[in-house]
Every structure is written in C-alpha cells, then in structure tokens.
Design a protein that fits this description.
Chain lengths: 375, 247
C-alpha cells in the first residue's frame, strides 16, 4: 500500500476466503454474531449481505492507560473468524499491541488512515487518558494521550470505548486518582461514543458491537449510560443460574462451607451481580466455558462505574470514607443510634430539672382534681 | 391546697390533626417499620439452613415482595400527604414545614432555646406553645420529606430494571445519574438510618411535650385533639367567622 493510491478495500467475505475459511465457516460465524447482537434469525441474511458486500471499515485502535486485557479478551472470541478477520487481517490499520510496524512506520500508518478515511473510520480506545501534569503520565511518540485522542477523534465516524478504563476510568481513576485518569466520554463530546465496560468486556460482546456497526452502518441502541442495550440491559443477577438459591434465601456464608459446595447463592460473600449490568450469565467466558459465579467466585461488578471505589469485593456493605476501613453504614448507624439515645437520656434528666416548675404544677393540678372528685 | 398555685387551667379542645393526617401518619409509621425490617433482611439475610430444595422455598423472594409492596404504599401515601398539604387545615399546610418567613426562623430559634438549651428568662422557666407543629418540628419533618424523596428515587430507581410498569421505569434516570446501582443501593441503605434515628427522637419528643406541657400531645395522633389553655385561646383567636358554621 503506497501513500498515494487508495486501494479498493476488500469486503469481509473476500478476506475470509483469502484466509482459507469455507463458506460454511463464514455462515456459521454470521449466525453466531447475529444471535449475539440480539437480532432474530431473519436478520442473518442481512448480516451476511453486509459482510459480503460492504468494504472493510478502517479501524484505529488506540491504547492509553490500560492493561491490554480488552485486546486479549477480543482475540479470544469463541469464533476464530473474529480474531482473524475483524482484528488480525481486515480492520486494524493501527494498534500498538498487535501491528507489525513500529516507530516511524506505525505513526505513518496511523496518519494515513486518519487522512485517507477521514469521517469513515471507527476509533476504538482502550484505556483512560491522564490529564494531570499536562498528560505526561501516558505519552506515545512524543505526544500525550490527550493530543493523540483528540487528533484521532476528529475524523472518526464513531468511537468505541473498550473496557472499564475507557468507559469509566477503572482502577487508575480510583481514589485518589493521582494521574487524573479520565474516561473518553468526558473528553470527546461531539462524536457518538459506545461504551463497552467490563474488565475486560466479553470478547463476543466486543465483536458483536463491531458487527452491528458494519451491518447497519450505525451504532447499536444504547442505554442511559451509553452502553449497547443488547448486552447491558440485564443484570448478571437476572440471568444467573444461582438465582433460585437467592430467591429461596439459601446463601454461601463462607467460601469453605457446605453451602459453597452445594452451589448456593454468593450474595452474602459480596456478589455484585444484583447491581451489575452485563451479559456474563448468558454469554459466559472463554468460548462459553464458565463465568466467575459459575466458578464459585462472587461477581465484583467490573462493568459498573467506579467499581474499585464502590465497596469491598467480599461484602455487601461498603466502608465509609474517613471512618476507617472497618466502619460501614451499619456500624456508623449503630454508633449514631447510641449517641442519640445517650443525648435523649441526658435531655430527659435535664427536663426534670429545667422544667420542674411546669411538671410540678401539672402534677399538683392533676392530684387536686383527683382529690376533689367523688369516687 | 388550691391557693398554692396561680389558677387551675381551663382547657379548650382544638381539632389539630384531621382524619386523613392521622391515617397518613399511622400508615407511614407502619410501612416504614416494615421497610426497615425487610430492608435489613435484604441487605444481610439470615443464615437459614434448609434441607428442602430451593424450588420449594421463597424466603428472600417474600421479603423482597413485602418490601416492594410496602414501598408502593409508602410512595402513594407520601404523594397523598403532599396533596393534603395544600387542601388540609392550617396545621397540615405546607407552610408549616418550609422555613420561608422570618417568623418561622425566629420560632425555630425560640424552640431551640426553650426545649433544647432549656434557657431561663429572668430566672423563670419557660414554656412554648404551638398548637400544631412547632417550627423546629416542622422543619425536621421537611427534612424527612426530603429523605422520603431520596428513598423513593433510589428505591424505585433500583427497582426500575426489574419492572415493566412505566411508574418505576420513570425513576431509571436516577441510578444512571449517580453512576450505577451499586452506589445507589448504598445511598438507599445509608438513608434508612435517618428513619431509625428520626423515629427514636420523634417518639421521645412527643412524650417530652406531653410530660412538660400537659396538652395531650401523645393522644393527639389518635383522636386528633389537642388542648390549650382558655386564656391562650382568647389571646390568639381572631374574629373571622367560620364559613362552615354559617352554612
């Protein structure tokens, strides 16, 4: 690919064939994706046509403050075509962790995509952007994350914020957030942003979001927090296979008790499933093998905002900032109740002294009336 | 004996709390107790052991179900009380709760001095009369209404995603604004403690007023009556005729 000539982009199907996949593999992949993005069976044809006819959409994938677990999750999507075609061969014009180019060539590839496909490419962002100290905490090629993001966002058709880092800041924005790690939607305001939170998000969910965009040419329907409704409208709790134990009131009390062996609900050991919106219970992880709760570990709510600051992982209660790590709402409440009761007892004593005149008068008046009435 | 005190009080009956206000009060008290008990259970269920299959029991389910029913009663009762603040008698009126006038704030200060600091004036113990709520109580009730609102917003906000009805769904924006269900649930739990502390202080102060003033404070939420001294009544009454009487 030279810098001057814009080559005709192959379609996804052409790339699939070139990769050595059969028509059957392709259709299987399409059927799976259609189901994942929440479409009915009749839409399989539509998705197939889109992937057969539409040229590949250029993708720029930026990495800022992150751990690359989103990329790892993505390339482990259950169907190999996801990794091979969407990521490896077809779409990625620039991604620091997976591309072969480095240094000048890499920067050039990024620049080329941004200028040639202005207004057409999808910008995927993995990681948050540090704003403290003029952004020196995360710099690539002599530019701060903020500069790179703003440049790349300028010509993007849409932005996908991969993972909790890009969606809400994740661990690096946990208190006290020394680098002022900032999620993408707080920096870029004038582009459609799809948040795909999770630490990491489920690989099939990530693929599903991209396929939805390819098929329909627009971003999927989002909820109030900017997440695709198809994957984030239900709580992990709602699709959890341990839910019947929850409703029955049968809970694991500690990780080594008989209840844990029986597979009871993990609510009392801190499961955040009832407050966490994600598709883990349905899609599961690693080719549908399992998900945390199935493996006996409570959900830690990794796709929820500020999940590092939203209380402890293994308890329902949360600590109160400034009152020590062991002080939760109920401890605080009990102390307040004790103080209140003591204050009221003090007030009652003070009343008998400070209002003695009225009390005495009422008592005398009442006794006098009692005496004067005939029995 | 009789000459030992100034005079025997003649008390006059005043209809302070109308039936809807009393009904609201006791329904509210009842559902709040139910909400606190079930709420505590939901936040930290008891360690029940059972040999029965999960399909044969519904313990947590029932607690949550009762919590939600009580929440609906609480919500509509709350709405009704706001409505009654505009159509009820002068002691139920919304002006009793919101400190907007200078007089209101001045009375709050007076109540604070007399009932909490127990200050004396010219060496004399002091007494304060308010027929309905005193200004301090009115303001505290206003704060409780704000906490009611917080509980409705957080509670129905959490419930929204489990419901198909438009009413709870209307609250879905609130957890979204706060940044998720986890923090919303915590606020819901913290605010619950306000009700417990309020109830303790509220019950104490009702008995305090009854004990010190002898005007029937405790029983007023039963029959609606309070009793004020005849001379106080004569001093405070105005001559505008009662429209109901002339009918």
């Amino acid at each position: 690919m030279t810098n001057d000539v814009l080559p005709k982009q192959p379609t996804y199907y052409e790339e699939v064939q070139r990769k050595g996949y059969s028509r059957r593999d392709f259709v299987r992949f399409v059927s799976m994706m259609t189901a994942f993005i929440g479409l009915e069976q009749s839409a399989i044809g539509q998705v197939t046509t889109a992937l057969e006819t539409k040229p590949r959409v250029p993708v720029i994938w930026l990495h800022f403050q992150e751990c690359t677990c989103c990329s790892e999750s993505f390339i482990r999507s259950s169907h190999p075509i996801v990794a091979d075609i969407l990521l490896d061969k077809i779409s990625l014009d620039y991604t620091e962790t997976l591309m072969a180019a480095s240094g000048f060539q890499a920067e050039e590839a990024l620049h080329n995509t941004m200028t040639k496909y202005k207004g057409q490419y999808i910008l995927c962002v993995e990681g948050s952007v540090p704003l403290a100290a003029d952004g020196v905490y995360c710099m690539i090629g002599g530019k701060t994350s903020l500069q790179i993001l703003e440049e790349a966002a300028e010509g993007a058709a849409a932005i996908i914020a991969w993972g909790s880092c890009a969606s809400n800041g994740c661990v690096q924005s946990a208190k006290p957030n020394p680098t002022k790690a900032t999620p993408i939607h707080k920096i870029i305001k004038n582009k459609p942003i799809i948040k795909v939170p999770g630490c990491p998000p489920i690989g099939e969910v990530m693929a599903g979001v991209i396929v939805h965009y390819l098929t329909f040419g627009r971003i999927p329907e989002l909820d109030k927090l900017g997440r695709p409704k198809a994957f984030y409208s239900k709580r992990v709790h709602d699709t959890c296979y341990r839910r019947p134990f929850y409703d029955a009131g049968l809970f694991v009390e500690s990780f080594d008790d008989a209840n844990a062996k029986k597979g009871y609900c993990l609510y009392k050991v801190g499961c955040k499933g009832p407050s966490t919106y994600n598709a883990c219970g349905v899609m599961k992880w690693n080719n549908g093998t399992s998900f945390p709760i199935q493996s006996g570990h409570p959900c830690i709510g990794c796709s929820e905002e500020n999940f590092w600051d939203n209380g402890r992982f293994y308890e329902r209660g949360s600590s109160f900032a400034g009152f020590g790590i062991e002080a939760d709402a109920d401890t605080f409440g009990k102390v307040a109740l004790g103080v209140t009761t003591a204050a009221l007892v003090g007030h009652a004593v003070a009343t008998n002294i400070g209002k003695s005149k009225f009390i005495k008068e009422h008592q005398q008046e009442g006794r006098e009336s009692e005496h004067e009435l005939k029995s | 004996m009789a000459n030992k005190y100034l005079h025997i009080h003649r008390l006059r009956r005043v209809y302070v709390w109308e039936l809807p206000v009393r009904f609201y009060h006791w329904l509210n008290a009842g559902v709040i107790i139910v909400l606190i008990v079930t709420g505590f259970f939901i936040s930290n269920p008891l360690a029940l052991m059972s040999n029965r299959e999960a399909a044969n029991q519904y313990t947590m389910g029932w607690f949550r179900y009762i919590h939600f029913i009580a929440a609906y009663l609480f919500f509509f009762n709350f709405l009704f009380r706001i409505y009654w603040g505009f159509v009820g008698n002068k002691y139920a009126n919304w002006r009793q709760f919101i400190p907007v006038s200078k007089r209101f704030i001045k009375e709050m200060w007076t109540v604070f001095k007399i009932d909490i600091l127990m200050l004396k004036k010219n060496g004399q113990q002091q007494d304060h009369l308010s027929v309905g709520h005193n200004a301090m109580a009115g303001f505290i009730y206003f704060l409780t209404f704000l906490v009611f609102l917080v509980q409705c917003l957080t509670g129905f906000g959490l419930y929204a995603s489990m419901s198909d009805w438009w009413l709870p769904k209307m609250f879905a924006w609130f957890p979204a604004m706060l940044g998720g269900d986890i923090v919303t649930r915590q606020i819901h739990h913290w605010a619950m403690w306000f009700f417990i502390l309020f109830a303790v202080v509220h019950v104490y102060l009702v008995f305090y007023h009854d004990y010190v003033e002898g005007r029937g404070e405790v029983s007023s939420m039963g029959g609606g009556w309070k009793f004020i001294e005849e001379d106080v009544f004569e001093k405070d009454k105005h001559m505008t005729p009662n429209p109901e009487k002339t009918k």
